[in-house]
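cron nightly-structures :: item 1 of 1
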Amino acid sequence: MSSKSRRRFVLAADDWRTAGPYGPGMDVISCKGLTKRFGPTTAVDGLDLRVSACQVYGFLGPNGAGKTTTIRMLLGLIVPTSGQIRLLGRKLPDPQGVRRVGSLIEEPAFYPWLTGRRNVEVLAATSGGASAAEVQRVLGLTGLGEVADRKVKTYSQGMRQRLGLAAAMLGRPSLLIIDEPTNGLDPGGIREIRELLRGLSADGTTVFLSSHLLSEVEQVCDRVAVIVRGRLVDEGPPGTLGALRPRVRIIVHPTKAAAAERLLARWPARRQNGSIIVEHDSGSEVNGALVAGGVIASSVVIERPRLEDRFLELTEQKTTSREDDHAIAVES
């Protein structure tokens, strides 16, 4: 994409406007006891979830956690075994509620011999139609304005992903549910989609986002939920998710490493790639302990855990816990 079209993309995102009765603090998605079983397999297990309006909400979990099954139930594509879903204030199943939701699930499918513009027009026609101006608007928002009249068979995977997102935004939906929106995009495209999603949220659209790119989720989402084996294990702002604390990374002269470890023995510590990692949240206390013992560090840095670290801690801990519970049940 040219730098000119990139600028148009960002400006178009700033022009997004969504009309609707949902303001900050109101629940756009509400799930209570949501459960889905396929024969003996429980894909979603008693899920309680609330998503407030005007947020970008991340929905995370390892493969097989039940994310896609949950999304399909939210969209009315499959019926829950038990539990309740309210979408935009309406209790599902309700075709009127689902009609006000835009969605992009997995890799979008298009007619390869048609142009990008014509594909969007066809999709619009199946959902009540859209004006030429509306089609052009969503193509511009997703950075496809300059390639809209090329056949889709010439599009890259990232361009097809943009086209799917454009189709999902037709009609200015109050809620946008999207699965892996940056799949196949280069770093520049990922940044543009991030800016678009933030712009949509700022102007009143609630975005429910499932993604494996945790660094992007951390940058774009207001809140996140983590599910493991169909159960909610944590929920909240990305910066507070999980129990990991900040840690201190210090570098000392190799001849002083053993002495430093003795001085820092009051805290859990380990060597890593020429550094000493101390599980403590105060760099001044760690440095003070070293100085009091006559060791001068060449570097003392506070490291705050990334969402990826917290996600791995949560999912590995819960998976191990469930396996241990199963083993105990079998033994007893």
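cron nightly-structures :: done
Residues 7 and 153 are 26 Å apart (CA to CA).
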